[in-house]
Amino acid sequence: MSPKYVDKKQKIKEIAQIALKLFSHRGYAATHVVQIADAAGIGKSTVYEYFETKEDLFFAAVKEWMLQFESQLAEQLKDIQDPIQKLHAVADLTMQWVEPMDPATLRLSLEILRHSLMENGIFRKRRHLMKELHAGSKHLVI
Known about the structure:
Layout: H1 8-26, H2 33-40, H3 44-50, H4 54-77, H5 83-97, H6 103-117, H7 127-141
Helix pairs in contact: 1-2, 1-4, 1-6, 2-3, 4-5, 4-7
């Protein structure tokens, strides 16, 4: 029997999507890597084969969230030609995406903001990576 081939990029995406759900429902501090591993049906050590730290996993989860947003934004903007209508569509989707009445979305938004502003925050230490993440959305808007 030959060894099972694992698509590393796909596995990273799957784990990040599961982590995103848990981080948004529990917050960064209350979410443990073992919980993510359990939800993904893998061992904790397997998570660390794909992500060096919990911070890396959180960053990947947020990146996945932003990629989902960009994908949805691109879909909404594809048939709109008028720049003013495009800006309205961007604003509408942004408001839907960070719906303040949805506790999970609000928690995730606050976690991102907190880790962007705190001196020891995950995103503050990775400003260059955050710039890269925002470049996709910026490109769509432009």
